[in-house]
Write the structure tokens for this entry.
Amino acid sequence: AQRVTQPEKLLSVFKGAPVELKCNYSYSGSPELFWYVQYSRQRLQLLLRHISRESIKGFTADLNKGETSFHLKKPFAQEEDSAMYYCALSGHNQGGKLIFGQGTELSVKP
Amino acid sequence: DAMVIQNPRYQVTQFGKPVTLSCSQTLNHNVMYWYQQKSSQAPKLLFHYYDKDFNNEADTPDNFQSRRPNTSFCFLDIRSPGLGDAAMYLCATSSPGSSTEAFFGQGTRLTVV
């Protein structure tokens, strides 16, 4: 079965603390993995994708095929990082046909 | 500079009364998607259009239909809304081959009374 699991509904940290949002997936084949973010009252938008291997707003995510994970990390959280984060996967070259996790709400306290 | 626009942002409809949600895009993307997101749940794909080709997800109820009259517009029709259809409906677009990114609208929150 194709599935994305985000085990934490809410993650609360203090400003400056490290952050790790967990994501595990189940997919037959070679998926493309994404992190989408939704800031308060804004639309869902792409944060980063595994094929780019880039750092966006200080966030990174490494695809671990052995553990079928794609955890999102940031060494020092900022208050403006507070948002809803969704891990998602798609088949090859099917970027909009996404299977989403349930999302993790990140709250960064001052 | 809104690229995917959904109207209205909030829609209230009566139980059983047909309702249409609209989505337009300025990106000229081939593919348009409709997702349903119920409270505290993951967005779930209902169907998508690749150009004029309609692709329904296997578990999308027959109550949900879609129209895409041209590249820019796509509509979600709910023939007989039930209380269980209350949700946020998200429209998204993508352009296969050039990017794997999906661009989302702000959503329409549907309330069924």
